[in-house]
Amino acid sequence: MSDNEIGCLGIDPGSRFMGVSWVICNENFTKILHAEAVTVAAVSGLDKQLRKTHDDRFARLELIGDGLSKYLNGKDVRYASTEASFVNPRMKSAVIPLTLAISKATDVVYRLYPTVYLRWISPNEVKNAVGVKGGNKKEGIAAGVTTAFAEFGYTVDLTGLSEHALDGHAVNMANIKLLRKIKGV
Known about the structure:
- This protein is of the alpha/beta class.
- 44% of the residues lie in helices and 20% in strands.
- Strands 3-2-1-4-5 form a 5-stranded mixed beta sheet.
- The longest helix is centred in the last third of the chain and has 21 residues, at 163-183.
C-alpha cells in the first residue's frame, strides 16, 4: 500500500463466526481500490469437546482471536469498526457472547494496531449504509453491499462469502461512509 491509501477494517462480531472485511480506500474516501472479506470460525468438533470443560465460550473466543490475528497479519489498518452489541428480543441472553466477541476483537485490534480506534456502529447505521430495510436476509445484504461498493467505483466480488463476511463488508461500508462525512466529502 502507498502512503495515500488507507486500510479500513470492518467486523461483524460473533463468538462462533466473525465476519471480517478489509478495504483499501484512497486518502479522501472517494474510491475503493481493493476489498476482501472472510469468516473467522471457531466451531465443528471443538464445541462438543469443550462443553465438558465449561470454558467453551472462552475457548471459542480465543480461537476467534487467533483467527482474526492470523487474517490481519501484514495488513495495514488505519480505521476499524465493529457492529455494536444489541439485544435481540427473541434471544436476550445472546448479547453476552456478542459483547464478549466485540471485546476479543477490540483486544486483537489494539494489540496489532495500538493507535487505531475501534468504532462501534449500531445495527441500524449498518443497515442504512447499505440500504437494507427490515430483516437481515442474505440476498438483501448482498444487494446492498454491492450497491454501496459501486458508489465508490468498485465492483465487489461476493462469490462464496458467508452472511458473516457480507455483514463485515456492511459494517465497513457504514464506517467508510461516516469517515467520508467527517472529512466533508
